User: Which sequence fits this backbone?
């Protein structure tokens, strides 16, 4: 950072999109052999987190370390600078970002800030629920669930019922995976604390008439059946209308006593995008063109959960997901490089690659076009995708280092694999 810099690319956010833009762009710019071009990655954490594993941390299947990698390791030996800090602002006219009081000028800006939890204006929900957007959130949930089992000793019958009732709000991918993971962990805690399993209640709430909207009728049915078999109460058409300490009110008039409400019912873009002068659409997501450039700002690229990309075939926004962020990262890296004279610009097009939804430690359902399968093999596939990502960002050494945690997360047993369970 002491060398003269004629062109700086600042990337705000070190999640799936931001990190992979940095890594891929560094490879493309290496062809220039120019020392006056700088890539600068900014993130509030000193580590990259594998978000698709957060529910496993929250349910004590893996440790926080298993779902994170220090940026110092990922960027070692690469021509990518790193600044740890909070982004205080962006001045689009002056082309500068402010990070912890330091002004950083840029020639290109990449916004990969992810998303925030959407509480939909529901009274009391923000104050009386736990979210799952970071490793820190996952640790809070894990510790809260553990503590609930210790607090029941001196609790009244009413309080005991609330302590032993666990509610996941939101029946999308994250909510289903969180419920499935808890369904495996809660019986273990009950046995450890000598509490009858019949006293444990785990409910999954979804405001619409189905969980896993857009996942397909058959795989959704399989997921419902498997969760129900684990003892998960599936409540669809059950919007949360109010939340109070220890009590959740549903639109049907039903109330659910709980001291552990995990809210994963939706996401919205960070409000800073609009505050900085970006043109935004639904859920506060930045409007971008087919090259993922911000409206009226060709030097600014936006990707991942922060961007609003409409699929021409459906007229609907591209859903926020890890695989979308990774695909968009490739597109942004290509286009920034093209701006600098390397290669050609290309339009972003979503390439569906299938989905795998875990339903606990030893179960999952997977779809790849017309192909559908479930059971333990699907669960191993889910973990293999996580390992493949580690290989992508850190090579074989990192993937091998994370392999034992993948086995722990699935209770790896070759006999289950051979049985076709």
Assistant:
């Amino acid at each position: 950072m002491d060398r003269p810099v004629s062109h700086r690319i600042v990337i705000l956010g070190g999640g799936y999109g931001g990190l992979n833009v940095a890594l891929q762009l560094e490879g493309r710019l290496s062809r220039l052999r120019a020392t006056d071009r700088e890539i600068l990655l900014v993130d509030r954490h000193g580590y990259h987190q594998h978000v698709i594993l957060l529910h496993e941390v929250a349910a004590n299947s893996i440790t926080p370390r298993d779902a994170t990698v220090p940026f110092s390791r990922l960027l070692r030996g690469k021509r990518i600078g790193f600044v740890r800090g909070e982004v205080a602002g962006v001045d689009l006219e002056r082309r500068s970002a402010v990070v912890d009081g330091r002004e950083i000028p840029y020639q290109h800006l990449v916004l990969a800030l992810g998303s925030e939890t959407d509480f939909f204006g529901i009274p009391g929900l923000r104050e009386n629920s736990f979210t799952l957007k970071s490793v820190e959130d996952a640790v809070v949930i894990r510790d809260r669930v553990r503590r609930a089992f210790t607090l029941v000793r001196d609790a009244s019958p009413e309080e005991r019922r609330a302590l032993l009732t666990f509610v996941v709000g939101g029946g999308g991918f994250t909510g289903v995976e969180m419920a499935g993971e808890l369904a495996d962990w809660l019986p273990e805690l009950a046995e450890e604390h000598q509490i009858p399993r019949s006293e444990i209640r785990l409910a999954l709430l979804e405001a619409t008439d189905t969980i896993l909207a857009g996942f397909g009728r058959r795989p959704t049915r399989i997921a419902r059946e498997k969760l129900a078999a684990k003892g998960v109460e599936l409540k669809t058409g059950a919007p949360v209308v109010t939340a109070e300490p220890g009590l959740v009110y549903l639109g049907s008039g039903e109330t659910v006593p709980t001291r552990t409400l995990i809210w994963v019912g939706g996401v919205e873009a960070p409000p800073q995008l609009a505050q900085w002068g970006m043109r935004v659409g639904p859920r506060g997501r930045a409007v971008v063109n087919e090259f993922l450039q911000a409206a009226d700002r060709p030097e600014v690229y936006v990707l991942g959960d922060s961007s609003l990309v409409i699929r021409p075939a459906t007229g609907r926004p591209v859903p926020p997901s890890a695989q979308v962020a990774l695909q968009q990262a490739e597109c942004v890296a290509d286009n920034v490089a093209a701006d600098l004279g390397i290669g050609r610009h290309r339009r972003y097009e979503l390439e569906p690659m299938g989905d795998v939804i875990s339903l606990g430690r030893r179960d999952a359902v997977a779809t790849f076009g017309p192909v559908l399968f479930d059971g333990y093999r699907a669960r191993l596939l889910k973990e293999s995708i996580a390992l493949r990502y580690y290989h992508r960002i850190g090579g074989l050494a990192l993937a091998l280092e994370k392999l034992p945690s993948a086995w722990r997360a699935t209770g790896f047993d070759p006999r289950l694999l051979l049985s076709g369970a």
About this structure: Residues 190 and 196 are 7 Å apart (CA to CA). Residues 357-419 form one domain. The first strand starts at residue 7 and ends at 12.
